[in-house]
Amino acid sequence: MTTSPWRGVVFATLAAFLFALNGSVSKTVLASGLSSLRLVELRSLGAALCFLAAVLVLRPRSLRAAPREIGFLVAAGVVGIGLVQFLYFVAIGRLPVGIALLLEYLAPVLVVVWVRFVRQEPVRRRIWSALALSVVGLVVVAEAWQGLQLDGLGVLAGLGAAAALATYYLSSERGMSSRDPLSLAAWTFGAAAVFWTVLQPWWTFPWADLTRLVPLPGPLPDAQVAAWLLVIWVVVLGTVVPYGLILLALRHLGSARTGLLGMAEPVLAAGVAFVVLGEALSPVQLLGGAVVLTGIVLAETARTVPETGAVPEGVAP
What is the mean pLDDT of residues 189-195? Predict the structure, then answer.
């Protein structure tokens, strides 16, 4: 296939914008009364069904999995998809969306630390600068000199999401060695959907919560929509479509450049949250966020690995 860098940039940027917008949409859904656990259950099942349908139409044979693969795919789905989404929803429920995403996007830093000290693989020396900038930036974002200015549970959830996302990145590298991204998404989202269904059977679902009218914040304060419409947005435009755009971007740009473009997501998310939710960060927090992003970009480019079609670091599932 003929590659086109500018198309890759368009695809990756649009995906980052949709992921960023999804933060504010998800926070609006959570504010309507639907719990984080139920939202992640809906998102996992909806995305799993969409990815499964796509695989069945495009390449049904790719769904086959050897018995030795199943345990890995289930673990990758539960931790790398299910827990990432749940912890992220908890974080955005207690923190500004931009800060929650900054915490989650520390995942690439954790990946490089794991690769360096656990796998004993060589990395570029910039990793030390990445670590230092990330820590300093987080201290500034939290305004630690004034005492912790952020919700403690929200911070822990954001850091937990980063750890789970790092697990997703590492497991994706392994999974992509034996299967394509689309079938991997179908398997992992499917595993997450089954996991949450076992924990929260569908016959206990509070369906009435989906029929509530939810006031739309921001420029349309008098408008209301049913909660289920926002949930559909979270599943389709907040998950399936941007993920598909990332797959297209990978074909044109490769994983490294696509991942770096994905770093726009926290910035875009903070901007969307400011317009839609009125979440304004102080100048000091914005400076700290810029420092964190610099550290993340350095971490993204610290590994010496060949280009692959794997899901890139810097792209939230």
Answer: 95
